[in-house]
Amino acid sequence: VFCSSRYATDFSSFHCLLKYVAFLLNVNPLFLAWEKLTGVHLKKFALRALVRVPVVLVIGFLALAIPFFGPLNSVMGAFLISFSVYIIPSFAFMKSYKQRQFIM
C-alpha cells in the first residue's frame, strides 16, 4: 500500500523505467537476430521498431500462457545443474585433450 506522497509517485515511475530498460537489455539479442532474419537490420529505426512488435507480442503471449514459469524454471535448474556443471565440462575436456594413437 503506497501512501499518497510525491516520493511514492516518483519511485513508481522510476521503477517502471527500470523494468522497461531491463526488458530491452534482455531482449535486445533476440531483436537483433529477428531483424537480421527479416533483413531490416540496416534500415531506418522506424521500420526496425515496427518489425520488433511481433517479437514483443509473442513474448507477451508466452508470459500470459505460462504464468508459473518461475517455479518451473527453478525445478529444471535444480535437476540440470549437475549435468551442466560436471558432465558437460568433463566430456568437453576429454574430447579436447584425448590422446591420438598413431599406428607405426
UniProtKB/TrEMBL annotation:
One GO location term (cellular component): membrane
Domain of life, per lineage: Eukaryota
Record-annotated Amino acid transporter transmembrane domain positions: 22-99
Keywords (A to Z) from UniProt: Amino-acid transport, Membrane, Transmembrane, Transmembrane helix, Transport
Cellular localisation: Membrane
Transmembrane segments: 20-37, 49-69, 75-94
InterPro entries: AA_transpt_TM
GO biological process entries: amino acid transport
Predominant cellular place of this UniProt entry's protein: membrane
Pfam families to which the protein is assigned, alphabetical: Aa_trans (PF01490)
Protein name from the UniProt record: Amino acid transporter transmembrane domain-containing protein
Species in which this protein is naturally found: Nymphaea colorata
